[in-house]
Amino acid sequence: MEEAHGLTLRELRRDMQMIFQDSASSLNPRLPVEDSIAYGPRVHGASRAQGKKIARELLEKVGLNPSLFGSRYPHELSGGQKQRVNVARALALNPRMLILDEAVSALDKSIEAQVLNQLRYLKRHFNLTYVFISHDLNVVQYVSDRVLVMYLGQVVEIGPVEAIYGRAKHPYTRALLNSRLSMNPDDRIDEAPLTGEPPNPIKPPSGCRFRIRCPHAEKVCAARPPAIGSWIDRSSHIAACHMQDASSGHSRTGHLPGGVAPHPAITVAANL
After folding, report:
1. Residue 259 pLDDT
2. Measured between alpha carbons, how far is 188 from 224 in angstroms, rounded to an integer?
3. Is residue 222 pLDDT above 80, yes or no?
4. Taking the complete model, does pTM exceed 0.85, yes or no?
5. Which of 51, 83, 219, 264 has the smallest CB count inside 10 Å?
6. In which order are the strands placed within the sheet that holds 146-151?
7. Domains, the chain, ranges and CATH?
8. Residue 196, SS3 per DSSP
């Protein structure tokens, strides 16, 4: 399909770029990083000189001296430097949105913090929208404006980051937040996590997919899947749970359930 909502596929590719988890395999080992960054603009019509100028400017923006790093090959860079090059390459076409798939999970914590701070700066500087996919709840909270939580391939909750982390509505989200480790050694998690194994995603349970691990599951949870509700504006905070639906017939309608830790999986949409 060549056009969607007035955009050609070529324009869509310019407006939406992606940064992958594995910074090493995302770069061509045979190209100097300057040429890797300039490749996109050249494909879209820029001259060699224009592509090189864009690449050098973006290397500066991501904190790498182009005189030192522009001619280097990926194997000559650290993991954090490679990821900065990937960020620069994604920005080379002046996109409106960046999709970051576990973009910092392969980095050690000190380098991760540097890259996250750089990403926050770039988001403001270029007025970008990030779709930041991560399982690290602290990174999610640091980067995001809005959070979207998924369980077994379905959205279970979406809302502003302050609302999600302060007043979570879905039992799975609350269980995720309760699973976070504390810096205080006296603040331990002594209770066992939720019982049961995650269901088979190929053959999920009927109704609510979380019900077989939810301590508040009732017959209505097996009978039909809960609706996510309407996303009215960026301040909306909605959850797909029968306890949030006054007409569902659930006995705990209006109650916010607690929880302990299942296996975490969280997807974040920042600045949307």
Report:
1. 33
2. 37
3. yes
4. no
5. 219
6. 16-19, 97-101, 129-133, 266-270, 146-151, 154-160, 238-239
7. 7-133 (3.40.50.300), 152-270 (3.40.50.300)
8. coil
